[in-house]
Design a protein that fits this description.
Helices cover 22% and strands 24% of the residues. It has an 8-stranded mixed beta sheet with strand order 4-3-2-5-1-6-8-7. The chain is built from 5 helices and 8 strands. The protein has one domain: Dihydrofolate Reductase, subunit A, CATH 3.40.430. The radius of gyration is 17 Å and the shape is globular.
């Protein structure tokens, strides 16, 4: 079965909206786009390169696909461009977007069913989900995520779209790797660890 990894940038209070630039996603009146820039450093660049230095395909929501498609084909000289441009992009969408940034394939119908079928294919590389908050929440609700890579930045935003939004299914996680950048960004890798276990303390 193919491994499915959700990797995302988060503020300390869990916001994932528009980390990369002011105009990336202003929905809901979000005014803090580009919030990760001040804390990016060479160590984070190295870690992101390692993340892309494996065979991979991308699993994206329509909006994230369109953001990536508007940038990466036109910046082939930049770091990360080759693995992103070369990867097959699987796009989950209720509409029929133009998938000009290829190779690409549309996941039609129920996203959870489509992704579950995609994971069953033993021949493909790992599936990486970047951004794509609505899709990620669907995958989380259906137990389809095998690993979370959470890049937590030392900033609080107070508002915006969150990865673990209302309605998240309670679940335990196991930390399997962690690193900290010079600017205080915590990069934690987690695996699902069953149900929440409660007790008295």
């Amino acid at each position: 079965m193919r491994k499915l990894i959700v990797t995302t940038f988060l503020s300390l209070d869990g916001v994932m909206q528009a980390p990369g630039g002011p105009d990336e996603d202003t929905s809901g009146g979000f005014a803090h786009g580009g919030w990760l820039a001040n804390n990016w450093d060479d160590r984070l660049g190295e870690l992101k390169s390692e993340e892309f230095d494996v065979p991979l395909d991308l699993l994206l929501g329509r909006r994230t696909y369109e953001i990536f498609a508007a940038y990466w084909p036109n910046h082939r000289e930049e770091a990360y461009a080759k693995p992103l441009n070369d990867a097959t992009k699987y796009v989950a969408s209720r509409s029929r977007p133009s998938l000009e940034w290829g190779p690409a394939a549309l996941i039609q119908g129920d996203a959870a069913e489509g992704v579950a079928a995609l994971k069953e294919n033993d021949d493909g590389p790992e599936l990486q989900v970047h951004g794509s908050g609505n899709l990620a929440q669907t995958l989380i609700r259906h137990g389809l995520v095998d690993e979370y890579r959470l890049w937590v930045f030392p900033i609080m935003l107070g508002e915006g779209k969150r990865l673990f939004a209302d309605g998240t299914i309670p679940a335990a996680l196991r930390l399997v790797d962690s690193k900290v950048s010079d600017t205080g960004v915590f990069v934690g890798t987690y695996e699902p660890a069953g149900e929440v276990v409660t007790g008295s303390f």
